[in-house]
Amino acid sequence: MEHPDERPRRGGGEGVVATQRWLVDGTNVVGSRPDGWWRDRAGAFRRLVDALGPLAAAGDEVTVVFDGRPAPGLEAGDHGGVAVRWAERRGRDAADDIVVALVEGDPDPGGLVVVTSDRGLAARVEELGAQVEGAGGFRRRLQDPAPGTDKRPST
Q: What is the rounded distance in angstroms from the CA atom of residue 101 to the CA atom of residue 49?
């Protein structure tokens, strides 16, 4: 039986393995830092996807889910190894419901790390067996990794 951390990475070739599987509550992570992101929401979402790119390049499986309408140039699909998803409906918890559905449908939810600071979403995915990483700490580590380390947040 294949170990979850030795599965071929989605979109990767033979021999490419995912060392970590991240499921990112994108709007929550963007909103974790009051840097004026609300003035350019689409730009903030694109910057987050760019910041997630090194994780994907290192072999991690990274999916980010955003609320709202797709930003120009950031439609659903693969963006440099980062899978981008958008909420399929409007309203409260729309992206959260996508995140929960992805965890529910995963054959190894314990191998997923959901990045969010939304307590309600965290409780829902932990109940399904996923791990949770806080949005603020995850974002800080993406931007400021400790000297001599890679950019992978610890779990």
A: 21
Half-sphere exposure of 112 (CA within 13 A, CB side): 27
- Structure token digits, residue 67: 């609320």
Q: Which residues are bridge partners to 8 per DSSP?
A: 17
Q: What is the DSSP string of 29-73?
A: HHTTS-SSGGGGHHHHHHHHHHHHHHHHHTT-EEEEEESSSPBTT
E strand segments, 73-133: 77-79, 82-86, 112-115, 131-133
| pLDDT at residue 114, rounded to an integer | 98
For the record, the structure tokens of 34 come out as 């009051």
Give residue limits of the domains in the chain. 27-119+127-143
pTM of the model: 0.81
Beta carbons of 82 and 56 less than 8 angstroms apart: yes
pLDDT in tens, 59-93: 999 999 999 889 999 999 999 999 999 998 888 78
For the segment 2-44, what is each residue's pLDDT rounded down to a tens digit? 333 343 434 444 444 558 999 999 999 999 888 889 899 999 9
Nearest one of 91, 106, 100 to 120, comparing CA atoms = 100
The percentage of residues in the chain with a pLDDT greater than 70, rounded to a whole number, is: 81
